[in-house]
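Morning F.,

Quick status update on the modeling queue. The single chain you submitted on Monday has been processed. Sequence for confirmation:
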Amino acid sequence: TFTNVESDQVIATIHPPEEGTPGKTILGDSIPAPSGDPVRFTCGEGVVLNADKSQAISTHGGRVVFDGKTLSVAEEFVVSGDVDLSVGNIDFNGVVEIRGDVLDDFNIRATKGIQISGAVGACHLESEGPIEIGSMSGLGVGTIQCKGDLRAKYLNQVEVKCWGNIEVAHEVRNC
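Structure tokens below.
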């Protein structure tokens, strides 16, 4: 799971440390609360602080990534395996890379491009950028809509709407 962010969106608010609430021992003696420490992190790619350093703001669209030390916005979402029930549909502000297959009925939308190494089933692929896939067998209901170039090895029973060039390496059938 991730959160899509747009350019110039506030992704974090930094609150100054506050005084803690004193505690008590089991005998009723007071235990003073330690003072809070200011948060320490660095702004990575795609993140800047506002003038008073109270908010972190994204400089481009993507997904928020925080590794405990650095806050950044990644423009790429990578799925190392297949898109199935463990992943679900994908709607991302950036580039989506799938290193496996996309099973039937799982849809992918990406603003900057889609790259799929394996086979795509009866799905809907939509991008404002280029799309590159291995093969797609759409079973008459699969669609591809891209505003960039489309590259594929094989297309079968797919409806394609493309604003750029279409390059199919091997075969187009019933499209």
